Amino acid sequence: MVLPPGTTWWGRLRPAERRLLAVTLLTLAVGALLLLGPEPLFGPARRSDIWRLFDERGIRPHHPPFVDRPLEYPVLLGLMMWAVSWVAASPTATLLVTGVAAGGAALLVTHMLFTRCASRALMWAASPTLGLYAFHNWDLFAVAPAIGGVLVYGRGSYELAGLLLGLGTATKWYPALYLLVLAAHRWSVGDRRGIWRLAWPAVAVNLGLNLPVLLADPPGWAYAYDFHRGRLPTRETLWHFVIRDRGFDLWLDPANAVRLVNLGAGVVVVAGTLLVVTRVLRGRTTPVAACAAATVVFLLGSKVYSAQYDLWLLAFLPLLGVTWRRWWALSVLDVVLFVVLFEIRDDSLRDHRLAVILVNDILRFAWLGSFALRCLWPRNPEGVDRDEPAAPSPEPALASA
């Protein structure tokens, strides 16, 4: 189609994509209202790590992360926080600047999903999970390159895929599993050179980001790993309840509890990853479905879980043709958890809150397990539980690339 001179980028988009981008903006606007509205119903202090960590970590232009301030996140995320500190001198300003950038990442994901699965991208754009947790943490800065890497891999752009997944890994560690899954796929089709094309950009970008920090301050660089290795599991995980009795108190001392959970989490992640890789090597699932399953493995095994982590998985739902019923189930679980964590603050209701969280955890992990099984043993090549024709796609090779 020939467009008249002077047509804006918005005018170049198809009407359906413009509507999806508008829905994304509306969803993000609702999330912003929840953050920036008045207390006690709203407020950033309880709802956003971005707001809270401005004071707690004290990252400023002359106090960079890792070398001068401890930080429990990967290097690229720390550098993002430091960059924002040069233009934002308060928690609210930091949240606004970071939020605008995160909103841009969410819109980019909408665009990428639309190019692949058309109107089914509404599962991302209109998700309550996106609205409630887009500005809770920095997860969207990992989701955008991670999903982008998986999508461009389907086009045969292995170097770009490796670069994007490397950037995602340097922001949140989970996209490293995608590199392993996609490398296994190249191996399964006999493309050894493809593994190199995929791996070297990811390795290069992570060495380029991590090595200077490691050389400048080894303990500061290692702090993130030490922090997570030594922490107890969060209450949004089943591990939290495994090490507690009926009164929700620890039944063993904290040090042994940490060792037990670390062992169990390691076994789950290693065993689950081996299962995913085995299915890929045998050609029993697609790269996209396998990456989604690897995300579930990370979530099931991790001793740290927060509902914003569901953003990692959310972008896969339209790609894999899941039913709206499955989408609604996850959305309800995320909304319930949000209300329990952020709206009910009466200490006298502690045991009741924990009981609700436990039930939510069980249902959530059942959802995750069911989804992972569908990814690894799909009903048909068109989707994990596709019961309708596949959406038109300009990238038909992605499902089997």
Describe the structure.
- With 401 residues, this protein is mostly helical.
- 67% of the residues lie in helices and 0% in strands.
- The chain has 20 helices and no strands.
- It has helices at 9-12, 15-36, 44-47, 49-57, 75-85, 91-117, 122-125, 128-133, 140-153, 158-169, 176-188, 192-216, 218-230, 238-242, 254-281, 287-301, 310-314, 316-319, 324-342, 350-376.
- The longest helix has 28 residues, at 254-281.
- The radius of gyration is 21 Å and the shape is globular.
- 42% of the residues are buried.
- Mean pLDDT is 87; it is low at 387-401.
Overall pLDDT metric: 87
- What structural class should be given to the helix and strand makeup? mainly alpha
Give the quaternary arrangement of the chains.
single chain
- Tell me the radius of gyration: 21 Å
Q: State the helix count.
A: 20
Relative helix content: 55-70%
Number of strands: 0
Shape: globular
Instruction: Let me know the largest β-sheet.
Output: none
Terminal residue distance: 29 Å
- Give the amount of beta strand, in percent: under 5%
Order of helices and strands: HHHHHHHHHHHHHHHHHHHH
Low-confidence parts: 387-401
